[in-house]
Structures are given as C-alpha cells and as structure tokens.
Specification:
The complex is a heterodimer. Chain A is built from 19 helices and 21 strands. Chain A is an alpha/beta fold. Chain A has 4 domains: 11-192, 3-Layer(aba) Sandwich (Pyruvate-ferredoxin Oxidoreductase, domain 3), CATH 3.40.920.10; 213-396, 3-Layer(aba) Sandwich (Rossmann fold), CATH 3.40.50.970; 414-486, no CATH class; 491-606, Rossmann fold. Chain A has a 7-stranded mixed beta sheet with strand order 9-8-10-11-13-12-19, sandwiched between helices. Chain A has a 6-stranded mixed beta sheet with strand order 2-3-1-4-5-6, sandwiched between helices. The longest helix of chain A is centred in the C-terminal third of the chain and has 21 residues, at 466-486. The model of chain A is unreliable at 1-5 (pLDDT under 50). Chain B is an alpha/beta fold. Chain B has helices spanning 38-53, 68-71, 90-100, 112-116, 120-128, 173-179, 193-205, 231-237, 287-299, 317-321, 333-336, 339-346; strands at 60-64, 81-84, 105-111, 133-139, 142-143, 149-150, 184-189, 209-215, 238-247, 262-266, 272-277, 303-310. A 10-stranded mixed beta sheet of chain B has the order 2-1-3-4-8-7-12-9-11-10, sandwiched between helices. In chain B, strands 5-6 form a two-stranded antiparallel sheet. In chain B, strand 10 (262-266) and strand 11 form a beta hairpin. The longest helix of chain B has 16 residues, at 38-53. Chain B is globular. Classes of the chains: A alpha/beta, B alpha/beta. At the A-B interface, strand 7, helix 7, strand 9, helix 9 and helix 10 of A face strand 2, helix 3, helix 5, helix 10 and helix 11 of B. Strand 15 of chain A pairs parallel with strand 2 of chain B, so a sheet runs across the interface.
Chain lengths: 607, 351
C-alpha cells in the first residue's frame, strides 16, 4: 500500500525546513498548537544548528491519532523554505508526499521527483506586496505558509486566529499583520490547489487533560514546587531554558509584589565547578538547591560531586544530555552520560540517578530528586536530554498533591542539639540504615562539625586511621542499599501473552519503544517492557530481568551504557542482553527497534 | 586537616566578653602547623577579633580550600561549623552559604596557591559579586604541603630554598581585588598583630566582600635569605600606608589623633573605622590612585599594608538580587510552594 492511497487523516508528519533567525519558530509552534487544540495528538521536534542566524533549521510535526509521539521516520508534507537545503529536503519526502515551496523564485525542473507533488506558493511576493517593513516581509512569510497549510490540511481557522491573538497579546499591533499573512496563504492555497489534501487533520477529542510543554520548563516548575530556593548555573545548551523557566516562575510566584523582595536566589556562576560549589554551600546550610547542566558541565562538576558523595551533602543536578564526546553536537540529542553520571568522580563513588522520559516526569522526578537528596544526603542527578528538555511534548496535565510535604531527612535541630540527651556526631549511623543525622550552621555550637572531603571517622573528625576510614566507606554502601528501596520504581508494561522477550529502555526512548511494541505485536512478536526510572536498580528491575530469556536494551548512545550498567550492577547474564542502539543525534524512531527485534527473533527461531 | 584536641582550661580571672564568653570559647584544636608558622599568629588574631566583637561563635561559618592555610579553621572557633572544600573552590561554597543563609558571618581562609592559581577564577568572581564575607589569604609565596614549589604570588627574583629563582610575574590579590570592584581591600603581616586585629574586626563588620591579604612567612620552605616572603624581608620592606582602628557602636572615639589626619568610615551596624593616614598622599577611596601607589612602592620592593581601599556604598550579592531579608533557609515551605490552584491556572498557557 503506497502512502498515497493510505488513509492519512490524522496520521502524518509535516517537516518545515527554515533558515534560523527568520522567526519560523513561533509560526511552527503555532501550527502545532492548532492541531493540538483540534484534539489531535501531536508532537514537535526542532532540529536546529548551534548558531544564531543564517543556518538551516528544521521543525518536524508528527500528527498521530493513535498518540504515537516518537519520530515517524517519514515526511508526508515538506515546507521547503530554505533554498540551500531544497534538494536534500525534496529527497526526504516520502513517496506520495507533498512539498510546498516559495515559488517567488521558481525551482529548476531538474530538482523534481515524480512521486512528490510540488506546490509552489509565491510567499515572498505576496508578503512584499502587502507589508512595507523589511523585517515583517521576512517574518510574515512564515505566517503565510501557516495559512496555506490551514487550507491544505483542513485546520480550524478559528483556532488559528485565537492562537495568533494569544501569541501576540503583549504586542497587539502585530495581530493584524499576522492575521493578514495567514489569510493570504489560506486564500492562495484555496484558489490554486485542491484543498484539503488526503493528508489532513480532522478534529478529535484526544488531547483533553493534556498539555504541550517542554521538559526544561516542567523541571524548572518542579524545582519551584519542591521548595528549592537557590539555583546556580553556567549557561550551556540544552539546559539553559531550565534555569530560565525557574527564574520566570519565581518572578511570578516568589516575588513580593509590594517590596519586590525575592524568595529565591539564582546565581549565574563563572563555570560549572562553581555552580555545583554554590549548590553545596547552600544545601550545607539547609536550603534546597540545584544546578542544570549538560555533559561538559557534568565533567567539570565531577570533583565536587565526589566530595558531596563522601561528605554527604544533598544536591540536585539536572543533566540535559546532548551529543558527545567532548563538545560534540550541542543542539542534538543523546543519552551518552549514563555511566558518567552514575560514577562521576574519582575513588569509590556512586550516585543516585533519575531518568525522566517526558516533561511530566521531569516535573515529578524533580520533586522526587529533592526528597531523595535530603533523605539520603547525597547528590541526585536527573538525566534528561535535549529531546525531552527543549521540544514540546504532549503529556498529561501536571497534578499537585496538596498534602505533599518535603522530606527534609534526618536533621538535629536547635531543640535536639540544645540539652539533647545524645551528643551530635555527624556520621554516626544511629538507625542502621546508613543515613546519619546532620546539623545546619548557625543553629547551635553543639552541632558544629567540619564538612570535609578528607578522611573522616563516624564522629566527623579527621582521620587517617585504616579502620575508621573503612567504617565510614562501608556505611556509605549500606546507605546505597537504602537508596535502592527509596528510588522510584521502574515503569513496566506487560504484553497480553506470556513472553520470554522483553525490552529494557530508558528516558526519551519511551515513545519509540511503545510504538515498536505495538507494531511488533501486530506481527505476532510479543514483548514485555521495563523502563528504568532510577539508579541504583531496585528489586523490581532485577526480578523483571530474571523472568526473561532475552532482553533487548534500547538506548541512545554508541557504547551501550545502560546495558553496561545493568551488567555491572545486576546479576543478569550479559549474554542474554542484546543492544539496540541509536546515536546519530536525532531522536530515536520505532523502525530501528522493530527491525532489530524482528531480525533477532527470526534468527532465534531458525536456530 | 590533622588536629589535636586542645583541653579547654578556663582560669577564673579570665576576661569575659559581653556574651559571658572567654577567649577560650573562641579557640579551636591544637595547630599541627610548623612551629613559627605565620598562619598560627593569624589564627590567634582571628580568635582575638571575634572575642572582642562579641560574636557568638556558632554564628560564624568558616570555610577554606586546600593547603596549609586551609587547615587553620580547625584551630579557631570550635563551636562554628566549618567547610573544608576542594582545592580553590571555597568561594563557591561561600556563595552558596550566603545565598541560603545571609545572617551568618562568613569567614574564608585561603592561601596564595588556593586563591591565586587553582582558585583564581572563583576568587575573582566572589569579589565582583561583592559576596558578604571576609576572605583572608595567608600569603607565603610557596606551596608548603607539596614541599616548596613557587606559588603565583612569588616575586620575580625571589629564590626557592634549593636556589631556583622565580622569573614569572607575581599575581597580587590586592591589586586584583581593587581592579575587580572589591569594596574592602587590605593587606597586613602576620607579625603585626596591632595592625591585623582592627583590620579583621573591620573586615568582619564590612557589608560586602572584604579581602585581607596577609603576608605570612613559611618557616620551612620560604624563610631563607633571597626570599621576598621571609620574616626578615617583610619586616624590612613593610610599608604601612593607612592605619585602621576599629571602634564598636556606641563607643566614644578617644580624641588622641591629630584631627586633620583622621577619617572616620561608618559601617552598617554603627561601628566605625578610624583611618589614620600614615602616608599623607594616600586616599582609601580612590581605586586608581591606590593601585598606582601600591605599584610605585612595589617597584621599590616595598609591601604597602593597611586598609587600602573601602567603599561602603555598593550593594552586596543580596542587595543586587533583592533577596528576601529573612534567610532563604528559614522560609517555610508554604510560602515557597505555589500550590494547586496556581498549577491549574498556569497550565492554561500550555494548552
């Protein structure tokens, strides 16, 4: 069945090829939001250069009535606005697809494909005729193609008009021009093409109870709701918008309207070494503090992370992963920091790591991270990635439990310290769970001790004594055992039929995996699925592994880091795990998973 | 940071301060530094300064990095919390501590290796943030714990113990702090308690970043002939430009000074610094002139000391940020968490 004859209503992908710095981003997200408001599940992914102006950038919108939010791997409608990439963009359109371009400058006939319908719209010409301002002429071309797409895809114009008014509410003078541009595109398409295309949108009711949000915004909001008061950071793509979001929410919720006083303090640090130091200085004093970063920043933070592990200070670190090694591709996505996060720093060091798979989990796991960091008195790293962090995802509305109280862990306060029956000893395991009690500076002299990264005994004193040193290091391992019981459980999806096959995956692979499982089950291959949400791996992870003969480990890095971690930290046989890896910097789609598993299963059956 | 617990013996005749505490309450454990180390004199001066200021010891947070100097916070204020950070990173710990609890007295102890090599960046940024703390550099021009390498403050022509001569330019924290907008910049000498104690008191009470660079000779690796950071050299080329006296609030100024030569700077808590101009062509409010003066004397091999620059008008980190006056670590969760209704209405933006 060719794409042309397939029913493509609410099941297709639009790709928009633009030049960065031309204002296409707001037009593209408006287009996506219009589809979302028509009740049709949709997701948008931005492929942008590490550059401010003039380089190619693409935006991909997948419309899926079934709610599949990973990349489809196909392009059904291409809006080719960048002459430089036109040939490449045309080549990417699936058979039977449509390409729209600015016919102000007609394309050479050699640049055509028989299986692709090419629609030319004189966008620049129309805008030049209707707008005087040079900048407006560039910007309005974007809105004009939105108008054309509205006609071609049968989008609800009322929804689009409302969105334009909301988008430019602060700059009302722009509303008229934007509406005009939309009208120009809409009318041109209506007059010159057969509208709508077979590839089109039909209103559904599948987005109520959902929002469109990016993971960094959701994580920043999570920090506000967790009661974090100190944030420190050094700007790095793709984590920057997390701190931007935190600051914006704090300006809204944490600023006294009369005095202008702020109930938070954000410090832009001189580098990531300082950013994590600021976090530790704050948590030492009992504040909740965090830092957002990405791979290169994590490398720089490693020394202090080891310090915090050993001196037992809470910290929340968001690593919004990008492509490595080294500077890599800063605006592309990967899951390459799994091992670096788990064992950051020299010596016997290990960290609690949480793995959100979407913006909703960014919010939820932010809260979990602050509680765990305080409860366990140790750094907690949240491994998001560029795909989750910077793209708008459709996810369930964020919920708040009004009964929530932060878990601040074990603290000797002024009352316990003053006249308390027991003498305060910083690293003494009173409860047998490996977690000692701490005290805050400035409260009482009886709680005074030295936070130090040098050898210390259970009373907090400096030591170079073999037995005293080992006692503390062994207790940290006991605490690790406690962490296993406290970290969030994995997500598990069981197939209807018993199966010896399973997929284990992590983070933003989730949508592609879910879609792959559905596609494979329609081919008679049934798989159970576990997505780890935390390291250390708890009992549910090890039990799940044990029940399967063969486990496909799906992740987005070259070196199979999740698989390595499972090998190191569980007793499951390495031979029974097979990696499915995707690491070219683009978000994973379901096809690579389907193909790899189909092949493995058929080979397994043949053998 | 090795230490030996010091028995606390309080004689009945020992003087008590306004809090009823004796000087013993401001001491720490026994020093394990070399006998005669300049750092121990600084420790004694710190003990004296806090005692005389009547600061409750537990209201101080003492922080340091790595090195001989960074061991010394164990030797004073045993009732104060301490933080012995990784090498060169104490300023970031201090920044976080200040962010979370602006009501503490923050005291950082560092050395020339810790602040001028590995930690130069963090030191500079603490200055430009005008972090409200007193930052002491115990400056001996040499790496002690790793046995005698030159540090970045070693002067050109100064010789190491084994005879090697330093040919690289020294980094002067005082000139750096002035150039970077430091609001309280001083230099002193571990061997001059009369100068040091009032400077410490003024630095503790100053609102904003206070730097005191203290020449503190290393008796083991850098106290020989041909060293420019030895006791003998420092005494010979010591040039006090301005003498500062600290006058607590409500205490009368004893008029024993020649009026024309004395200037009073009022601090935020009502205490005052009385500046006696030892050198008449010197102004403590003029950065450019101060740097010129220091450089001119540096060319002659002289070490200019005293309170070299002060500006009480600049806002500190919290002033710039407009942080709540109540320390952030004391804010109840209910005031920090926006709650259910806000979350519901906020999400209209994302539909």
């Amino acid at each position: 069945m060719s794409a042309k004859t397939k029913n493509r209503v609410n099941d297709f992908t639009i790709k928009l090829a633009n030049v960065n710095g031309t204002g296409s981003a707001s037009a593209n997200s408006l287009l996506m939001k219009a589809i979302f408001r028509m009740g049709v599940p949709v997701t948008g992914k931005n492929f942008f250069p590490s550059n401010i102006q003039g380089l190619p950038t693409w935006y991909e919108i997948r419309v899926s009535k079934d709610g599949y939010l990973a990349r489809s791997g196909d392009v059904d409608v291409m809006v080719a606005m960048n002459a430089e990439t036109y040939e490449e963009d045309l080549g990417e359109v699936s058979k039977g697809g449509t390409l729209i371009y600015d016919s102000t400058w007609p394309r050479d006939k050699t640049l055509s494909r028989r299986s692709v319908t090419v629609l030319g719209i004189p966008l620049a010409k129309m805008c030049n005729e209707h707008f005087d301002n040079v900048r407006a002429r560039i910007l309005m071309k974007n809105m004009a193609y939105v108008g054309a797409l509205a006609a071609l895809l049968d989008l609800d114009l009322d929804v689009i008009h409302t969105l334009v008014k909301e988008t430019f509410a602060a700059k009302e003078s722009l509303i008229g021009a934007n509406l005009k541009a939309i009208e120009l595109g809409f009318e041109y398409a209506g007059k010159n093409f057969q509208c709508p295309l077979p590839t089109r949108v039909k209103a559904l009711d599948k987005t109520s109870g959902h929002i469109m949000i990016d993971g960094n915004t959701a994580a920043g909001l999570g920090c506000v709701y967790s009661g974090a008061t100190v944030g420190a950071w050094y700007p790095i793509t793709p984590s920057t918008s997390l701190m931007d979001a935190f600051k914006a929410f704090c300006e809204r919720f944490r600023k006294d309207p009369e005095t202008g006083e702020r109930n938070y303090c954000v410090v832009q640090a001189e580098d990531e070494l300082a950013a994590i130091g600021i976090v530790l200085g704050a948590t030492w004093n009992g504040a909740r503090a965090f830092t957002p970063t990405s791979g290169p920043g994590l490398s720089l933070m490693s020394e202090f992370l080891g310090f915090a592990y050993y001196a037992e200070l809470p910290a929340v670190v968001f690593d919004v992963q990008r492509v490595g090694p080294s500077t890599g591709m800063p605006t592309r996505t990967q899951q390459g920091d799994i091992l670096a996060a788990a064992y950051a720093s020299h010596g016997d060091t290990r960290h609690v790591v949480l793995f959100p798979s979407n913006p909703q989990e960014c919010f939820e796991l932010s809260l979990a991270a602050f509680d765990l960091a305080d409860r366990l008195q140790t750094p907690v790293l949240i491994l998001s990635d560029l795909d989750i962090g910077m793209n708008d995802w459709m996810c369930e509305e964020l919920k708040w439990d009004p009964k929530y109280k932060p878990d601040r862990g074990k603290v000797f306060d002024a009352k316990t310290l003053k006249g308390g029956a027991e003498k305060f000893s910083r690293y003494l395991d009173r409860d047998g769970d490996g977690v000692a009690y701490r005290s805050y500076p400035g409260v009482d002299g009886d709680g005074a001790y030295f936070v130090r990264g040098s050898g210390h005994n259970q009373y907090g004193g400096y030591t170079e004594d073999a037995a005293e040193y080992q006692q503390v290091i062994d207790r940290l391992m006991l605490k690790w055992g406690t962490a296993k019981k406290l970290v969030p459980d994995p997500y598990i999806r069981r197939t209807r039929k018993a199966s010896q096959y399973a997929i284990v995956s992590v983070g933003s692979c989730d949508n592609a995996v879910q879609e792959a499982i559905d596609r494979l089950s329609s081919k008679g291959i049934y798989l159970n699925y576990l997505r780890v949400k935390a390291f250390p791996f708890g009992k549910k992870v090890t039990n799940f592994l044990r029940k399967h003969e063969r486990v496909f480990v799906v992740e987005q890095n070259r070196d199979a880091q999740l698989k390595s971690l499972l090998c190191l930290e569980t007793d499951y046989s390495k031979q029974r795990m097979q990696s499915i890896l995707h690491y070219n910097g683009l978000p994973i789609d379901s096809s690579c998973i389907v193909a790899a598993i189909e092949q493995a299963v058929s080979q397994g059956e043949a053998a | 940071m090795t230490y030996i617990v010091k028995p606390k013996i309080v004689h009945s005749g020992l003087q008590r301060n306004a809090l009823g505490l004796t000087i013993r309450d401001y001491e720490g454990s026994m020093s394990t530094l070399c006998a005669g180390c300049g750092h121990d004199s600084i420790t004694a001066a710190i003990v004296q300064a806090f005692f005389e200021l009547h600061v409750p010891p537990h209201r101080v947070a003492k922080m340091s990095g790595i090195g001989c100097s960074s061991k010394t916070p164990a030797y004073f204020l045993s009732s104060a919390h301490g933080f012995n950070a990784v090498h060169g990173r104490m300023p970031s710990i201090a920044t976080g501590a200040s962010a979370a609890n602006r009501s503490l007295y923050l005291l950082g102890i560092s050395g020339d290796g810790d602040s001028l090599s590995i930690g130069l960046g963090q030191f500079s940024h603490a200055v430009r943030r005008n972090l409200n703390m007193l930052y002491i550099i115990e400056n001996n021009g040499v790496y002690g714990l790793t046995k005698g390498q030159f540090s970045a403050s070693a002067d050109v022509g100064s010789k190491a113990k084994r005879g090697e001569m330093n040919k690289q330019q020294p980094i002067d924290p005082v000139q750096m702090a002035m150039a970077q907008g430091g609001t309280f910049v001083a230099r002193s000498f571990s061997g001059d308690k009369d100068q040091l104690i009032p400077l410490l008191k003024a630095g503790i009470k100053h609102d904003g970043f206070g730097l005191i660079d203290i020449i503190s000779p290393c008796v083991t690796f850098n106290d020989h002939e041909d060293s420019t950071k030895s006791y003998a050299y420092t005494r010979q080329f010591y040039h006090p430009a301005v003498h500062a006296d600290f006058v607590p609030p409500a205490e009368e100024i004893k008029a024993s000074y020649n009026r024309g030569n004395v200037m009073s700077v009022e601090l935020h808590d009502g205490s005052r610094i009385l500046l006696r101009k030892v050198s008449k062509d010197y102004s403590v409010h003029n950065r450019g002139a101060a740097i010129d003066y220091i450089r001119a004397h540096q060319r002659k091999g002289e070490i200019v000391t005293g309170l070299l620059y002060i500006d009480q008008g600049e806002p500190d980190m919290h002033g710039i940020n407009r942080t709540a006056s109540l320390p952030l670590n004391e804010l109840p969760f209910d005031t920090l968490c926006p709650g259910t209704e806000s979350l519901v209405s906020l999400q209209d933006l994302y539909r």
